[in-house]
Amino acid sequence: MPIPLYTSEKPSTSETGHTPPLDNSKTTSDGPATSTASPTSAAAQDELARTSARRDSINNREQTVEEREEAARLYEERIEEEYAKREGGA
Question: Is 20 within 8 Å of 13 (Cβ atoms)?
């Protein structure tokens, strides 16, 4: 593996095999105008998005006591109906 040489010269796209990044400073359909983000701020934005997604997931899983009791009651009713079907059909 060659030793990296730190120069201000950028490799051409044919050498890297990558296309140059798009200019993110224009307004997109996804939201307001943003400037080209540094790797640090991109990582921070990714972490913020993951944290927000986790928070939303936790909030969606929380149920009130009444909702849990209702779900348990419906489950018991369905189990009783299933057992009744099996006993009557056997």
Answer: yes
SS (H, E, C) the chain: CCCCCCCCCCCCHHHHCCCCCCCCCCCECCECCCCCCCHHHHHHHHHHHHHHHHHHHHHHHCCCHHHHHHHHHHHHHHHHHHHHHHHHHC
Provide the token pair at 42: 């991109």
Per the CB < 8 A criterion, the answer to whether 27 and 37 are in contact is: no
Q: What is the pLDDT of residues 77-90, one digit of tens each?
A: 999 999 999 988 65
Q: Who contacts 63 (Cβ-Cβ below 8 Å, separation ≥6)?
A: 71
pTM: 0.31
> How far is C-alpha 79 from the chain's CA centre?
35
Structure confidence by residue, pLDDT tens digits, 6-48: 767 666 666 556 565 555 555 455 555 555 657 778 888 888 8
